[in-house]
Amino acid sequence: MANIIHRVGIKAQVHDVYKALTTLEGLSNWWTREVSGAADEGKEIVFVFKTPSGEVKGSMRMKVMKQSQDRTVQWRCTEGPAEWIGTDITFDLSQQGEYAIVLFGHRNWKEEVEFMGHCSMKWAIFMMSLKDLVEKGKGQPSPVDVKIDNWN
Questions:
Q1: Which conformational region is residue 118 in: left (phi greater than 0), alpha (psi within -120 to 50 degrees), or beta?
Q2: Residue 85 in 3-state DSSP?
Q3: Edge-to-edge strand order for the sheet containing 2-11?
Q4: Residue range 94-146, pLDDT digits in tens
Q5: What is the pTM of this model?
Q6: The domain containing residue 122 runs over which residues?
Q7: Tell me, what CATH number does 101's domain have?
Q8: Residue 97 belongs to a domain
């Protein structure tokens, strides 16, 4: 199994980051504007990605597997790109001085493929969007995110 991991420090309290990861409003302000469902443990969240003109580029359904207040968030992809099905998205949080540290993981890919490289880069972009949301009050969720290639 292969994993994507990123570490980002956000000048904030862990609770503020946790809120951005566990509410539909928070998620829609850093990852994609179109979020529905329920962000509670055991429930499902649907994320839809569109172009700036409104064309649907893709969607994912995540089951919220675990939430530990101000410490951990874990989702499992149940619908989306074939390579994502059964993978886990994890956010492990810790407070280190003035920084909330996010150790992000997109875990259990069956194999390292080109699409994994694209997703790793996009996750890095979205981790910076999360940082901007919490530190500056405004993220860059899809469809206003940084475009990196012809796949988005």
A1: alpha
A2: coil
A3: 2-11, 99-109, 88-96, 72-79, 56-68, 44-50, 34-37
A4: 999 999 999 999 999 999 999 999 999 999 999 999 999 999 999 999 999 99
A5: 0.97
A6: 2-136
A7: 3.30.530.20
A8: yes
